[in-house]
Amino acid sequence: MKRILGLDYGTKTVGVALSDELGLTAQPLETITRKDPNKLRKTYARIEALAKEYEVDKIVLGLPKNMNNTIGERGEATIDFRDALVRRTGLEVILWDERLTTVASERVLMESGVRRENRKEVIDQIAASFILQGYLNSLKKG
Questions:
Q1: Is the pLDDT of residue 1 over 80?
Q2: Judging by beta carbons within 10 Å of its beta carbon (0-12, 13-18, 19+), is residue 134 exposed, middle or buried?
């Protein structure tokens, strides 16, 4: 099985996680940062480079939904991001409900004793790991 990339797409950052070769676990990889929310060229290029480097054959992208299951402005932006990723990479990009992943990530970091100022650096990677792990777990249930 090839590896799967997990992404947590935000206005200024994209958290990146990577599955192991067996597709069992998700590990935080990096956070891609950009100064301007609308300047995505370098972000796409970095995701393409990571996909090639790790021989990824699929991407799981967190889809922010409202608690009532509707898709708002962030969700629409995420769908546009997905469409562009598919065009750029030629890979399958699966949208995955990411509700509460940031909350869960914050809790894990607090329980691990990570100081607040250091949490910002890794929270997007942890959120991407939760998104990817949720997807991987769904595959096991079959």
A1: no
A2: middle
Residue type, 118: N
Q: Are 122 and 114 in contact (CB under 8 A)?
A: yes
Q: How far apart are CA 92 and CA 81, in angstroms?
A: 13
pLDDT digits (tens, 9 = 90+) for 20-65: 999 999 999 999 999 887 889 999 999 999 999 999 999 999 999 8
Q: How far apart are CA 105 and CA 133, in angstroms?
A: 12
62 conformational bin, left if phi > 0, alpha if psi -120 to 50, beta if neither: beta
With contact defined as beta carbons under 8 Å apart, do 32 and 13 qualify?
yes
